[in-house]
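Can you please make up a whole protein chain along with its backbone structure tokens because I've never seen that pairing?
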Amino acid sequence: MSRKSLKVALLQEIDHGSTQANLAAIETGLREAAAAGVELVVLQELHNGPYFCQHESVEEFDRAEPIPGPSTERLGALAEELKLVVVCSLFERRAAGLYHNTAVVFDRSRSIAGIYRKMHIPDDPAFYEKFYFTPGDLGFEPIQTSVGKLGLLVCWDQWYPEGARLMALAGAELLLYPTAIGWDPADDEKEKVRQHDAWITVQRGHAVANGLPLLAVNRTGFEAAPDGGRGIQFWGSSFAVGPQGEYLAQASVDRPQLLVVDVDLARSESVRRIWPFLRDRRIDAYADLLKRYRD
């Protein structure tokens, strides 16, 4: 692409207790980002409320909304007013009994530039997402915007190299990961360090393997479990890395933060010339990747 530099912002937030309070905090962050000359803002996963997937309850489906809907109307209006590319993350009600974890992109307009439905859905203690979300059906297709082609994935997708690679093969110029991940308070400190380091390392690996900058935006703060469980301490640490996995910026572990960073988009071209991983892929030998396991 002809563009060489892009100022981006990662809006790391806590849950403020209600959809309206969360959207108000997001509006404040978007206005601050626009005032700083930012062009692209990425919000955290399921930013409208608490991370409700800590338990399984049919009442939680009341949080879902259609796309387009009330939240896209408000966020789209802000994207248009502030001339921002905005990536948001919503609990989509597609139809009765059919729901998705969906990221939505606005390109300086109130109209939707594109959506991505989370493809990999976890079902782990305190992360019971399979109860709520149907796996995405739109594939791994970058979304074209005025700042480039965005390879948009969501949280659990970040553990799978296949998603990042397919976005890169389709021409993505940035990899983006809205996220909600944190610690079980019962884990000891060594386990917490291992999990945190693994989360960062795997995503830096996606940047390196594909020669692309990457933005990961996580929520922060402690959120109690609705069913009386131990809750989750979301670890924040939103970060941006370049195409060799080099740190560009990282947010705090335990507080809301608007992380503003300049991304050099031209580096992908120069890095791919010295590390031509796409050139050397043995596509003739990868057929078994379509198998669940090689018995």
